[in-house]
Design goal:
Blueprint lengths: L1 E10 L4 H17 L3 E17 L2 E13 L2 H11 L4 E8 L1
Antiparallel strand pairs: 1-3, 1-4, 2-3
């Protein structure tokens, strides 16, 4: 089991319920793969350094988790096919 950290951005235009649903979806991907989420830190709405898809603001979330090496690949795949998702960065600690 390895420790990972993922920082991802959700579209700020989504409602609070939709943002919470996306966060729970990504959490369940990790738990379904046999991993465990250690912490979820919701940074909230922040300005981008540069416009992304003509938008200047996004909702940032930092998640720390422990899992097998295959889980981050599945998490990245799920993020890329999810509507309302902007960017991600997965790091092995």
């Amino acid at each position: 089991m390895n420790k990972y950290e993922v920082l991802y951005i959700i579209q700020n235009e989504l409602s609070d319920e939709q943002k919470t649903a996306l966060i729970e979806k990504f959490k369940s991907v990790i738990e379904t793969g046999g991993g465990s989420v250690e912490s979820i830190d919701k940074w909230g709405a922040k300005k981008y350094a540069y416009p992304i898809d003509f938008k200047t603001e996004g909702y940032y979330v930092l998640m720390n988790f422990t899992s097998d090496p295959t889980v981050p690949q599945e998490l990245e795949r799920q993020m890329l096919i999810t509507d309302g998702f902007v960017r991600k960065l997965v790091l092995k600690k």
